[in-house]
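User: For my dataset I need records formatted as: sequence, then structure tokens, nothing else. Please produce one.
Assistant:
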Amino acid sequence: MVSWIVSRLVVIVFGTLYPAYYSYKAVKSKDVKEYVKWMMYWIIFALFTAVEVFTDMFLCWIPFYYELKIAFVVWLLSPYTKGSSVLYRKLVHPTLSSKEKDIDEYICQAKDKSYDTLVHFGRKGLNVAASAAVMAATKSQGVLSDRLRSFSMQDLSSYQSDPVNTGPGPTQPAAAPQRTRSMMRSKSESCNKASS
């Protein structure tokens, strides 16, 4: 566990931050030699990072694995060993030079296919979203009209079921608030049932 933490710190500080600062200085000074040196380093470091993902999963059980990673990063950076330059010139450059046309063609095909795939799935996604919106609007319209229709039917039925008072004045005003209260109760009960 300790060796993992130390190796992560070394890779972050000496493998990333230190070279990033010196790459900045190379760009600022416009020194082509330094610029090329750091470009070779970053290419090798990118490959190291890609390989590291898999080796960390499958080879971490090897004794001194993390210590070997630390030594590798130091070897890449060392001005005495020039590890990144050696790996780039002996391994990466010849391999990329021989496969460059194939890689470029593959990248172009992947761009075209990814664009076509993105457009295809984008259209499908928009169609699904549009149909879902229309469906939701249609359903909510139906639910709303059913709810309004049920309120009006209940109002009519409760109004018709109330006895009509034909007597003189004082009993009629008392019947109107009672009818209003019963209509309000039936509406609130319908709302509670519909929302449940």
